[in-house]
Design goal:
Blueprint (H helix, E strand, L loop, with lengths): L3 H10 L5 E4 L7 H12 L3 E5 L15 H12 L8 E7 L2 E8 L8 E2 L2 E6 L2 E4 L3 H10 L17
Parallel strand pairs: 1-2
Antiparallel strand pairs: 2-4, 3-4, 5-6, 6-7
Helix pairs in contact: 2-3
Length: 155
Amino acid sequence: MIDEKKALELIEQGEGIHSEFKERIPSKVRELSEEVCAFANTEGGFILIGINNKNEIVPNLFIDNTKRSAIQDSLDAIQPPISCKLYQLSVKNHSIWIIEVPEGDNKPYVVSGSIFVRHGANTQKLRNPTDIRQLFDDAGALHYVRAEYRDVQFD
């Protein structure tokens, strides 16, 4: 878990490869699972909920149990499962919420049949087979079997 000091550093740095800001819970909670998937497929990171596009804390953010359950359900849709932390943090006497995502050990992570990664401050859906292959290769998830057919005759 990060503390107020670390949260303020992330806010000051702005969005990047390891941080994403959301002013509030998106109406389509699935967007959060796409961000989590991207962080898990890259180097891990933090989603700070309650921070606007100007890197300012949004006052009076409240996330009730229903919304927290919806977030958790959305995160549970990521395969293979990834263990994230969702918690509230007081920053400058305001509440923000953090989703802390570790770099995944079982890449690639998929949500709704799609693979997402972080490129700088953006989450990108992988569409290009070369990029998908590279992610598998980087994760050590591709295993090639090389066979030699020197003396084999095919009829």
